[in-house]
Amino acid sequence: MAAVKDAVLERAVDLAREVALEIAEEPEYVGEYLGAVREAERLVSHRFACTARGYRGWAWTVTVARVPRGRTATVCEAELLPGEDAVLAKPWVPWSERLRPGDIGPGDVLPFRADDPRLEPGFTPTGDPEIDEVAIDELALARVRVLSPQGRAEAAQRWYRGSRGPATPGAVASAAACWSCGFLVPLQGSLGQLFAVCANEWSPDDGKVVSLDHGCGAHSETDSEPVASEWPAPEPLFDELAIDVVERTDGAETRAEAEATAPTAEPAVDVTATTDTATTDTATTDTATTDTATMDTATTDTAPTESGATDTGTTDADGRPADEA
Q: Which InterPro entries did the record assign (predicted)?
């Protein structure tokens, strides 16, 4: 139901302007009159343009009212309100909902949240050495609050879907996964079943949590593939005039130096071979002498006589016939 026209309140423009000038920091910030708006019965708002910088589309709004059968307007409230084309800030959201990763800078401190669903009470020592050793030393639960199942699940989803999960371009292009890399440092607890920390200074993920099926080009067990050159391989060049001087790193002599510095040994005399040679020569001489004697004897025995008959007479020791002797 539309409000009934109220002449008393609609004529209170000057009263509304005086109030607008009072609440404005500077008088020039109050601009032209924009009209009146009937809010309800005996309730009217007068609007004036705001000329202050940064408040385009805003208006000074002064609301006046009167009692029944009254003839005097009374100011109810005055404020600066935005219009339809006003520049507005984003709707206010609590910090716990609008906070994003990376918003916390050096020196910033978040307020304490006693009802954080990502945390739950930590472990209280029981006095049993076996139970306390596992909970405190191995699982590190001796804190006021630790991660709850919801906190672990949210962290696992965030890490796995982030820039160090298995779906990143670097992980897809890698030749091997992080689980087989020697630079991987495992995590404790349930998160260690899926995540670990990279400890390779050459990796882009050094010091960060990575999934076990993540990967990069700095894997400890992979190698780069040789790339063929577009230029022909030149023939090797050998410099035969240069001499490379190499200093010996140890005190051991080389084989060549050992042979050069070794004393010269006298040639061994083969006594057996010499003896055999002398024996052979002696035997040969004796045989030759015997043969000569035989030949002389044969010549003497077969010498012909003048008559052509062979003399078969006996000779003396000097080789003459016995008759002449």
A: DUF3027
Helix (H, G, I), strand (E, B) or coil at 275: helix
Q: Is 306 helix (H, G, I), strand (E, B) or coil?
A: coil
Q: Is 59 helix (H, G, I), strand (E, B) or coil?
A: strand
> If phi over 0 gives left and psi between -120 and 50 gives alpha, with beta otherwise, what is residue 316?
beta
What's the gap between Cα 175 and its chain centre?
Answer: 13
Q: Which of 181, 171, 271 is nearest to 222 (CA)?
A: 181
In a domain, 265, yes or no: no
What is the value of pTM for the model shown?
A: 0.44
- Cα 196 to Cα 210: distance, rounded to the nearest angstrom: 6
Three-state secondary-structure class, residue 258? helix
Any idea what the CATH number is for the domain that residue 20 is in?
3.10.450
What's the alpha-carbon Rg for the chain, to the nearest Å?
62
Domain that residue 156 falls in: 148-211
Please indicate, yes or no, if residue 32 is contained in any of the structural domains. Answer: yes
pLDDT by residue (tens digit) across 172-206?
A: 999 999 999 999 999 988 899 999 999 999 999 99
As a whole number of angstroms, the distance between CA 201 and CA 184 comes to 12
Half-sphere exposure of 95 (CA within 13 A, CB side): 7
Sheet arrangement for strand 43-50: 30-40, 43-50, 58-65, 74-82
Bridge partners (DSSP) of residue 82 are: 58
Domain membership flag for residue 237 = no
φ, ψ of residue 107 to 5 degrees: the values are: 90, -10
256 phi, psi to nearest 5 deg: -65, -40
With tokens 């991987």, the residue in question is 184
